Amino acid sequence: MFKAIILAGGSGERFWPLSTPEKPKQFLNVFGGESLIRQSVSRLKGLVKPEDVFVITSKALVAATRKELPEIPKSNIVGEPMRRDTGAAVALGVGVASSCASLTSGEDAASPLVLGFFPSDQLAKNPAAFRKAVAEAIKRAKAKDAIVTLGIKPTFPATGYGYVNPKSGQFVEKPNAAKAKAYLRKGYLWNAGMFIGRAEVFKAAFAAHAPALVPLFTSSVSRLKSAYEPLPRISFDFAVMEHLKNVEVVKGDFGWDDVGSYAAFDKHFARGKDDNIVLGEVNAVETEGCTAVAKGAKIALLGVKDLVVVTTKDAVLVVAKDKVAELKKLFAK
Q1: Highest-confidence segment of 28-37, 102-111, 185-194
Q2: Which residue in 30, 19, 4, 32 sits closest to 64, CA to CA?
Q3: DSSP-assigned letters across all residues of 117-177
Q4: Tens digit of each residue's pLDDT (9 = 90 or more) over 185-222
Q5: What is the pLDDT of residues 144-166, one digit of tens each?
Q6: Which of 17, 156, 243, 305 lies 20 to 30 Å from 95, alpha-carbon distance?
């Protein structure tokens, strides 16, 4: 039996103002014609039935998520009362999916429960190749007491991604430029934050390395606030994966992109005159290498270079291209 858990609690600050707390990155339909969360569910078709898909999101986004994914049972979309990063989200997903599995009868009930965790805000341009990689990961998870991760074939020495050694399963954090080049020479893969394993293996890993999160396995959805308040804010990678010896890696080459910032526009939209990317009503004169997205007021650019300019009905963003990954600074308290 396989159940998929979509992690959809992100705030998408790097795509402000297109992304807002009320409509974060996973709800954007800028890339591919459908929202990113819609795509994350659609590409699992054939691997899992809608009733076996769960979404862990924020409490404030439960209604919007149910509207975006009407085929998923309402009770399968669970809202976290506060942000505690992916460590808590994965633990909650393990508990919720395991609880539902315990109610299953028939042939499926006798088979081991395999869980797959997938981000809600990434692209996979080749869904068939994605499903093939996930199917291989499920196969390995059934056969081994290991958590299986999908490692992405790198296309350049990125410093914004974590890496995984496909031979040892060792996770390493975001490197500097020199280390990134060394990782590529050694055959390391990008860490895409996708994890597949038997429920019992996830539970054992949390018990060994993140016991503070174990209570979420049995917490009532109606009483999550009291369960969440004392929890540490920590990613699943830090809390669990970096400590494990039993990690398997399946190499994935399916057009993956985490579309982590406005820099993604350079990869997914055609450049026009003077290397500009323009969406909406934009007038660019003597302007080079800019990305302009007019979703609100019209944009007029004159004599500028290498900027990202975005308008919505509520806000305007102007940022140098080499600073787009630092948009979170605008929201620092």
Answers
A1: 185-194
A2: 19
A3: EEESS-EES-HHHHHHHHHHHHHHHHHSSSEEEEEEPPSS--SSS-EE-TTT--EE----H
A4: 999 999 999 999 999 999 999 999 999 999 999 988 88
A5: 999 999 999 999 999 888 899 99
A6: 243
Residue identified by tokens 């302009």 is 292
Cis peptide before 175 (omega within 30 of 0): no
Strand (E) positions, the chain? Answer: 2-8, 53-58, 77-80, 114-119, 123-124, 147-152, 163-164, 171-172, 189-198, 247-252, 256-257, 277-279, 282-285, 291-294, 299-302, 307-311, 316-320
Please give the C-alpha separations between residue 10 and each of 6, 20, 168, 325, in angstroms, as whole numbers. Answer: 11, 11, 30, 15
For residues 118-124, give the mean pLDDT.
Answer: 96
d(CA 35, CA 67): 12
